Backbone:
């Protein structure tokens, strides 16, 4: 087994692998964070290609199938065994920040689940080391650090691309990591579905064309100046409305719980709220209703940020 290390901010991830196809796909995403030497890791990923899938322990309890009939989840001692169509077995131990992926052959479905499992391992590892996770996208634009937070398909990545086209520096997409009052740069498995695909005619492409990304593994962006909650609005005119701090925190918690309930264990009750309040105390929050006229939506967002 070969060992490869990645450093994301102050987190170290160790990957044990056989230089196989799945590892090469993962490494393509995490290559900017690759380091030669590292301190003891915060999380461990093991990728093994087998001739026959490892059996699920007999004492593991089946928690049903999700999302497909041939995909089953089993639970045993805080460990999740996820069997994917007889092609792969994911052993997720988020309590100990360990992930083992054992697969026979690689197809699109196995790859999709593998990348999602790896991303969630990194997110849970970050939470264990004092970070707060926001399901959103973040940019640095005109001296401001801005987060677009919302549920899947709400238009976060569309907003991110609008600012990127105006020469904004993208900090992260789909997973924002906040430590204290700082944002960590984090990219993994960029999302190009939903509203983004419709507005900009992206058809699940692997890379965004001409995107300006900052993948400096050590850089932290100080402070969060603005949070926008994007909404798809069936109206020609776009608009923005302010959101009170209490309501904004409530929205962030709802988004967090929904995302983690599907993918991983949520942080202990109260931990997430405290970290949000530390990092987002002086942050201004807004609802952004993006109309179906893209030029108007882009102009509305850019003009507001420039004069805010």
Residues:
């Amino acid at each position: 087994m070969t060992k490869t290390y990645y450093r994301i901010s102050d987190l170290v991830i160790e990957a044990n692998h056989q230089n196989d196809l799945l590892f090469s796909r993962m490494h393509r995403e995490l290559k900017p964070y690759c380091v030669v030497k590292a301190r003891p890791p915060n999380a461990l990923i093991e990728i093994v290609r087998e001739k026959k899938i490892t059996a699920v322990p007999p004492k593991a309890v089946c928690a049903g199938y999700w999302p497909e009939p041939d995909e089953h989840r089993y639970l045993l001692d805080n460990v999740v065994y996820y069997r994917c169509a007889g092609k792969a077995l994911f052993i997720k131990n988020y309590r100990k920040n360990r992930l083992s992926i054992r697969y026979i052959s690689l197809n699109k479905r196995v790859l999709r689940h593998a990348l999602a499992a790896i991303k969630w391992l990194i997110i849970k590892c970050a939470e264990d080391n004092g970070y707060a996770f926001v399901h959103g996208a973040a940019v640095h634009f005109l001296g401001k650090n801005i987060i677009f937070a919302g549920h899947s398909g709400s238009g976060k990545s569309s907003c991110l691309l609008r600012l990127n086209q105006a020469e904004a520096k993208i900090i992260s997409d789909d997973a924002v990591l906040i430590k204290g009052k700082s944002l960590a740069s984090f990219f993994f498995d960029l999302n190009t579905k939903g509203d983004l695909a419709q507005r900009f005619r992206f058809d699940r492409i692997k890379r965004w064309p001409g995107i300006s990304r900052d993948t400096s593994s050590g850089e932290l962006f100080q402070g969060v100046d603005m949070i926008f909650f994007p909404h798809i609005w069936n109206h020609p005119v776009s608009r923005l409305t302010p959101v009170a701090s209490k309501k904004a925190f409530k929205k962030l918690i709802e988004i967090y719980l929904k995302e983690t309930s599907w993918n991983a264990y949520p942080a202990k009750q109260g931990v997430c709220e405290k970290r949000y309040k530390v990092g987002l105390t002086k942050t201004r929050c807004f609802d952004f209703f993006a109309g179906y006229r893209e030029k108007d939506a882009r102009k509305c967002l850019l003009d507001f940020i420039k004069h805010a």
Observations:
- The CA atoms of residues 80 and 124 lie 14 Å apart.
